[in-house]
Amino acid sequence: KAPRVAMVEVVAERLDLFVRAWLLCPEVIGGEGEHLEALALVLLVKRLEALHQKVDKSAPDVTVPQFAAAALNGLECVRISTQPSDNVNRIYETLNNRGRSLTQGDLIRNYVFMRLGVAGKSFYEHTWSDLDTRFSGESLTHLFWLDLVRDSPTITQSQTYSQQSRRLEKLKTNDELKAGIKAIAKRGDLWELIQNPHLEGDLAVRRRLQRLKDWRTTTVHPILMYLLELRSQDRATDKELAKAMQYIESYFVRRMIMGRATDNMNRVLLSAGENLDKAIGKGSKPPRVDVALRT
Question: Would the pTM of this model clear 0.85, i.e. be above it?
């Protein structure tokens, strides 16, 4: 085995012994754990020193004691309670299989598959895997946030997991939970279009989507999602959609000229979707989408 791999295995072995001993005999370490930690450090250092001469010399100039101390002192333990029917391996893999901080989307994924249990494998293969393929962690989080602000415009992106899990808790059966996620996944088609305007078939709509993307602002995403949804429901034409997006860009330009490019922009655009919904939902002959948005 390569020296680096061997070293990592030794670290993992000693840390595992340290954690197991602490869990089984907490009284031995007298509150702070300095005795057991010292013992683990001695064992770890001795084993690593035996490998020290074989380590790749291009590695950073860090001493073995420094490496061992960093591993021991930087370790954080998290306890996760499971049920007999839970797939602990899948939980572990989905918790953090990339060694990076978990996003709000990651937390939602974990929640869903812990709820589904053994039914999760099939659901992942037929539904969720497509989301993972198309959207990165932050992009997936944004999709779940867009789903929330459609009905609750004041929700912030940092509240995505807490609000989505609260909503999903109301879905009592696996079938209801799956249906709820599938509905969000369907909206993912529109979110993908916003991120990749070149996928749009209509030239005028594609041009407007690209121009709004070039502004590099996420505040426009909720209203764009709503406009695209109206078109998918045959409640708006391509021409109306392109015109509505032109009005949005015109609004951006006017605010920039006035020196108010970002003041209350998020609140204004979020409320625009809500007001637009009310306007086109009234009467037997609702106004065109572009006209309703302008007024």
Answer: no
